[in-house]
Structures are given as C-alpha cells and as structure tokens.
C-alpha cells in the first residue's frame, strides 16, 4: 500500500512539474507566397502529430502567426511571440526578406529563431540567436554555377532575377561571382519583378544574346509564367533555378510542358537516400495529403525536431541553453537528411532536381 501511495505521489509530482512548452511559428498563410506557408504548415502539423509532448511529459503548444507574406507583418509576429506569448523558440518564416525583418528582434529579446528555408546569407550573419537548417545562397549559387559551366558546358549565361527580393539578389550574386571565377561570361542580367505577369521583353532581350544557359532564381508563380512565355518566344536554353522555383504545384500547373528540363538546387528529394525518420515522414505525408512530399514540409518538420530536442535538453525556460543547443547541433538525423549546425549555420549536402514529365526528379547529390 505504501509502495502504491509512493508511486501515485511520484506520478502526481511529475504531472505537477509538467508545463506547456510554447513554440512560435511564423508562416505566410496568405499573400504572395501563401503556397509556401501551406506546405510549411503541413510539415509542422505532421511533426507535431508525431511528437506533441517532450520526453519529460511537457505539453507542446504551437502558436502559429500568419505574416501575410509581408516583412512588417513578420516583424509584428515575432514581437508578439516573444513579448506576449513568451515562447521558448520561434520557427520561420519562409522567405529571406521576411526573415531579415525578424532577426534583430530575436537577438534583442534573446529568443532563438530557427530559419528553415530563408537562404540569404545576411539572415544569420552576425546574429547570435538566429540559426538556419538550410544551406545559404552563397553555397546554392555556387552549385548552380558549377552545374552550368562544368556539367552543361555553358560559356555564356543569362540571369533573370527579382531585384526586390533578398533571396533572388543573394542567389544571383553568388551565381555571378562563381561563373566569372570559372571563366564564364554573364552576357545579360535583367529584372523579373514579383507580381509582374508579362516577361516577354526581358526574355526577348535574353534570346538576342544567345546564352548557353539561363539562371532563374525566382519563386514559383513568376517562374512558371517565365517558362510559358519563354516557350512562346522560342527561347530554348537550359534553365537552372533555386529551391523556390519548383517548390509549389502552381509551377507545374501553369508551366506545364514549358517547364520540362528545368533544373533546381534543393535541400532534399524523396528519391535520394533517406534516413529512418525520412522514410516514416514520406509515408505519413503521402497517406494524409495524397501527393509527393514537399521540400518545405520536410524542412519545417526538421526545424520543429531540432527545437524540441533542444528544449528537452535544456527545459522550456532556459532560452540561452536552447539557443546554444540549436546553434551547435551535431549529426542530426532529420527528415531531410543528416546535418549539423556550426554557430547557427547548416553543414549539409544539396541535391539537384530536374523537371521530367511534369514531376520533380532527383538528379544528383552535392556534398558541402
């Protein structure tokens, strides 16, 4: 009887010590890149279904805020989460411009911010409380340039990018530098502003320069329109994009056969070698959503996993410890693959995917 009472007392003690763990998530659930947000939320939802309590029995509470694809809304969301909601860590947002609006708030409030897919180098540069589990644009742009020069044999390249997007600017800069380093020539650079629908003037100028390859660090909606209009103009040139180009089904629905052969640098492919967690996630995702796993879903799920692991090691209230564990995680066996972080910067492989028969197909893996 005494043993039973003691056991009950221990259980009650554990329950009394259990507390809610608050994790903030900032995603574009509406606005220009709302499609990214929906895919990201899928990853968070599946990760939460798999693990909604810590190993200590603490209940995890997700506080999702829609940043409406806007940088001011992103800053407001971050401020709300750290000031009012008192979260232990924040995950998000999806794009670099919005992430850059949140980083100072993270540092000022000493609250860890995990960027799953914001790739601009400035997102983490000089920041003490901002980490990234994707690779940076400086790495991604180099891979794309190497693909153009070394694999495709291009000598002259064109760049069509969005000069209002930190993501697009960062990729174009890294690509341009590496092309010149490898002895190639950028024969034309022109702008594809987000929200624009007619790119025929830019594409005609590119066609006139007769490049061997086109670099397109553009998001999916404008990218699909560019693919369709390039086909209409008879511009047939090997095209390489970044991780945002084919990241939503909208690209395939709009571009259709015009997108065939497009290649993109990415973090992940369901056709590459999978971790044990990756295999389980693919099955759960396909069972629930009846479609192929999105890279963004996998990356958001991994950000959640890294956050929970750090909280379990430190407790929900010790944000200094949580931040340190996140920034220096070693050999994390994630859904998107195995990776480590060095002072908040990811060390991970990249993949090249290619559009074939209206689907994104794995081409090769590039080690860091």
UniProtKB/TrEMBL annotation:
Keywords: Signal
Boundaries of every Leucine-binding protein domain copy: 21-358
Keyword check for Glycoprotein: no
Signal peptide interval: 1-18
Keyword Plastid on entry: no
Family: Belongs to the leucine-binding protein family.
Record protein name field: Branched-chain amino acid ABC transporter substrate-binding protein
């Amino acid at each position: 009887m005494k043993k039973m009472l003691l056991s009950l007392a221990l259980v009650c003690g554990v329950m009394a010590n259990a507390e809610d763990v608050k994790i903030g998530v900032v995603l574009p659930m509406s606005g220009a890149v709302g499609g990214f947000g929906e895919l990201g939320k899928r990853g968070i939802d599946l990760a939460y279904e798999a693990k909604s309590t810590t190993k200590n029995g603490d209940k995890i509470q997700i506080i999702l805020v829609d940043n409406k694809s806007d940088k001011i809304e992103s800053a407001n969301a971050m401020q709300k989460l750290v000031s009012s909601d008192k979260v232990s860590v924040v995950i998000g947002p999806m794009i670099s411009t919005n992430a850059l609006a949140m980083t100072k708030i993270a540092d000022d409030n000493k609250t860890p911010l995990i960027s799953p897919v914001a790739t601009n180098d400035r997102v983490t540069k000089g920041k003490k409380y901002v980490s990234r589990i994707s690779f940076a644009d400086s790495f991604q742009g180099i891979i794309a340039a190497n693909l153009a020069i070394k694999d495709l044999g291009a000598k002259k390249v064109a760049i069509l990018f969005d000069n209002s997007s930190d993501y697009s600017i960062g990729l174009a800069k890294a690509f341009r530098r590496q092309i010149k380093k490898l002895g190639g020539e950028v024969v034309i650079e022109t702008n594809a502003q987000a929200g624009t629908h007619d790119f025929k003037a830019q594409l005609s100028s590119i066609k006139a320069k007769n490049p061997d390859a086109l670099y397109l660090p553009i998001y999916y909606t404008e990218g699909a329109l560019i693919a369709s209009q390039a086909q209409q103009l008879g511009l047939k040139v090997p095209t390489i994009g970044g991780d945002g180009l084919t990241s939503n089904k909208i690209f395939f629905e709009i571009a259709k056969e015009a997108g065939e052969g497009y290649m993109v640098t990415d973090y992940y492919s369901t056709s590459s070698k999978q971790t044990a967690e990756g295999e389980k996630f693919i099955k759960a995702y396909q069972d629930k959503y009846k479609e192929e796993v999105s890279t963004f879903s996998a990356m958001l799920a991994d950000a959640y996993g890294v956050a929970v692991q750090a909280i379990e090691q430190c407790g929900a209230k010790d944000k200094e410890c949580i931040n340190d564990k996140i920034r220096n995680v070693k050999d994390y066996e994630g859904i998107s693959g195995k990776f480590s972080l060095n002072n908040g910067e990811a060390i991970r492989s990249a993949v090249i995917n290619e559009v074939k028969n209206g689907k994104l197909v794995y081409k090769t893996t590039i080690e860091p």
